[in-house]
Each structure stands twice: as structure tokens, then as C-alpha cells.
Amino acid sequence: MWQQHLDKLTLAAVLLLAALLLALQLGDVKSWAAIDWLDILGEGIVLAVALSWLTLNLLNRPAGRVTDWLYYGSLLLSCSFALDLLDEFLRYPAHVRTMSWLESVPAPLGMLALTYGLMGWHQEQRQINRQLRGRERFLRDHRLLDPLTQLYGLDYLYAVLNRELALHQQQRLPLSILMLDIDQFAAFNRQHGTAAGDNYLISLAELLSSQMRESDVICRYAGDRFVAVLVHTEQAAAEIIALHLQQQLQRLTAAGQTLHCSVACIQATQTQATAVLKQAELALRASKLRGARPVYQPGHGNL
Ligand SMILES: Nc1nc2c(ncn2[C@@H]2O[C@H](COP(=O)(O)OP(=O)(O)OP(=O)(O)O)[C@@H](O)[C@H]2O)c(=O)[nH]1
């Protein structure tokens, strides 16, 4: 998460360094006896807290307007508190007013920016809570479950995907889609019967539910095709999830065999669920072609 805020972290480091250099340039170092260590302890803690606000905000929040306000607020406060702390070690000549200006002005501005950011955060949280309540209503609606696998069906997938796409547009949060399809499942059914096929679908659904993250929404998209909506997930992270899933699928057997599944993941860029799913299907088709397996031969190991 911090990589997307690298420019902000660099700016903070540069400003704090500039404040230090300016203070050293303008002030004279106080004698050991003139230093008040209790003041230093108090002001040091205040600075450390402001810096922790700055970093916690950048480490935990996605890029956006609210994060920017919280960042600028805590940066101004950090600069002001850093100068306050330096004051304890340095004495400035009476005619130098720059440092007292620099110490006093950023603090109230920082407080204002931080307060504005917190108000934005409050609004954002209310919006998220509303969406979570809507999500929960869906979760409790059992008509939306596929009776065989107990995963969500197509209706739920469309509803969730459209809502996540709207959120993705508003808040610039990354969203990825993973699509999985069992290869040559029709041939497996013919060979071992639909009951064996059903058992495989149930085991696959259980594996998907246990291996994906809690925030991922897994749905049965078609007979032998599944879709996972990976919220707040960049394409690179989605690909790691897909790779991990492929490894776990090796352990899943049916009638003594390991069936091969094709997996594709895409970063959602369109605004409509239909378009996103079409894009995922194209990626899946390409993945199937890349990993094309020989035509199913009964009793010959992997599909
Ligand atoms: N056992 C079982 N089979 C199902 C179920 N739903 C769909 N199928 C079967 O899944 C098969 C899907 O066939 P295709 O779409 O041709 O897929 P495939 O045979 O895996 O072919 P490729 O995907 O191209 O490798 C069909 O034979 C369906 O009958 C189900 O609930 N249970």
C-alpha cells in the first residue's frame, strides 16, 4: 500500500529535513545546562504521535481526497512539532522571526486540514456502512444460492458486481475478477456419470470457499464455470491468488483423477457487469488455448 504514497512520504522527509537544516542555519546550539529534558520528552512524544498519524494514514488508506487531507494535516502538524522540539536545543537571535512564524502558523492550518479530512472520513464511513448493510441483506437471501454448490448464483453475481463497479468508479479502489472453468467436464460426466460430476462440483466449491479470502465473493457462473469478485485487489495480487488456487486444485480428485481447470483473472475496467464478464470470458478462452490439454481419455490421469 505504501508504494502508491511514495511521493507523499518523500515530501514529508524532505520538509522535515529542510526544517532541521533551516533551524541549524539560523540558531545556536544551547549549552547542556540550558536544555530542559522534560520539555523535550513531552514535545518528542507529541511529534512521534503526529508522525505516526501521518504514516498510519498512508499505510492503511487508499489514495484519494480524504487521505490527502489527512496527510497534509498531519504533515503540517509534524513540521510544527518538529520545529518546536528543535527549539529546545537551539537558541535563535531575537531579530530572527522566521522560526517563530514557522512554528506557529502550520499547527492551526494542520488542525483545520486534519479536521476536514476527518469529516470526509466520517462521510465515507457512512457510505461504506450503507453498502455493507445492503451486502448483508443479499447474504441472508437464500434464494440467491445455487442449490448444488451452495455458492451464489448469477443474479447475485450481477448485483454484487454492478455495485462493486460503481464503488470502484467512485473511490478508485482496484477490483479484479477471477474466472475458472473445468476443462472437458462433459467428457468426465459421460465417463463417470453426473453424480461423480456433481461431487466434483461440490468439492470444487468447497475448495474455492476455503481458499479465497473472506472479502472475495464466489459465484457459480454457469454449469462448470465459477467467478470470484476480488474486491480491493490489483491485477498482480489477483494473479498470485490464481496461481495459489491452481496449486490447490492439484489436490482435488474425482473418481481417482485430477481434473484440469483453466483460470483467468482480469482487472475490471468497464462500468457494466456484462462487459466485465465478457472480458473475463475472453481471458479465460485465451487461458484455455494456452494450456490446452489433450482430448480426455478415460482413466488416463489428468484432464
Ligand atoms: N454433473 C454435472 N454436470 C454439469 C452440471 N452443470 C453443467 N454440467 C455439465 O458440464 C458440461 C459443460 O460442458 P462444456 O461447456 O462443453 O465444457 P467442457 O466439456 O468442460 O469443455 P471445455 O470447457 O471446452 O473444456 C456439460 O456436459 C454439462 O452437462 C451439474 O450441475 N452437474
From TrEMBL:
Its EC number is 2.7.7.65. GO terms for molecular function: diguanylate cyclase activity. It catalyses: 2 GTP = 3',3'-c-di-GMP + 2 diphosphate. One of its GO terms (biological process) is negative regulation of bacterial-type flagellum-dependent cell motility. Residues 173-303 form the GGDEF domain. It comes from Alishewanella agri BL06. NCBIfam families: GGDEF. This is diguanylate cyclase. One of its GO terms (cellular component) is plasma membrane.
